[in-house]
Amino acid sequence: MTSKVPFVKNNNGTQIQSIGLGTFKSLGGDCERATLHAIDAGYRHLDCAYFYGNEAEVGSAVNKKISEGVIKREDIFITTKLWCTFHEPERVEHACRKSLENFGLDYIDLYLIHFPYSYVYRGDDETIPLNDKGEVELTDVDYLDTWRAMEKLVELGLTKNIGVSNFNSQQLARLLANCKIKPIHNQVECHPALNQKKLIAFCRQNDIVVTAFCPLGRPDPSKKTPDFLFDDRVQAIGDKYGKTRAQIVLRYLVEIGTVPLPKSSTPQRIEENFNIFDFKLDAEDHKVLESFNSPEGRVVRALQAVNNINYPYNIEF
Q1: Contact 107, 100 (CB under 8 A)
Q2: Which helix (H) or strand (E) holds 133?
Q3: What confidence category does residue 224 fall into, taking pLDDT thresholds of 50, 70 and 90?
Q4: Which residues are catalytic?
Q5: Angle of helix 245-255 relative to helix 267-274, nearest 10 degrees?
Q6: Residue 294: how many other CB atoms lie within 10 Å
Q7: The overall pTM is greater than 0.90
Q8: pLDDT given at position 28
């Protein structure tokens, strides 16, 4: 199955599968089971984060599959992320080593700055530091200073690659003008209601791969949201190709130039999400999917940081 899935080349010559397994909110043993199943199904690209609290589960699954001889360490590409409380340069290496300890691995394939804004540090386990009013306590650490500490992690061999997440075009441009090591990825929310075409074009010009979190817009079947996943027109496109609506959406994201990271704990869905490389959408299909794009389409708004100097969503892209 793996051979059917194309790979995307990063700007430093490394490569990743053009779809990955998302693990956000996958906990309580579900994450380990999902990761084991995904590896057996052919996934070789796993997306994690310190904030998700499940690096140990992912690591346990990966190490099991290595010991079973299903994969070698170099076969699998593992992404994790530096959380907002560790942005001070002197905390970056500690945070990375903590993730490595969680995974039980010697190196990470890709380490991302999770958000461009930063929080007060109150210990490794306090991920959401609140003040007396119950508001998240932010700081103004410059992400360029954080990035310089990220570059050192590559020199130390703790991560093979570095990148960013939730950065807008202006933040990326500033980073590109001031970095020694160029980010290989920008991971952003992307789905038909927020298709990020302008940001994708900007990243493509600068040879940065866009990975797409929330590719299905956090579905809620009881409310039939998001619209694009429950729309009759998308169902009709699915019927045309013998695919599910989710498969149509994921295929669209691949075709507009992203690497989607669908999250699922269900074996059947994990396999379905992966099985999107044996058909192509036509121009009419794209028109239908593009019709859902909206300024209101964002799911993750991060409003707790809206007044911070590094809040990324105040500009169009």
Answers
A1: yes
A2: none
A3: very high
A4: 52
A5: 40
A6: 12
A7: yes
A8: 75
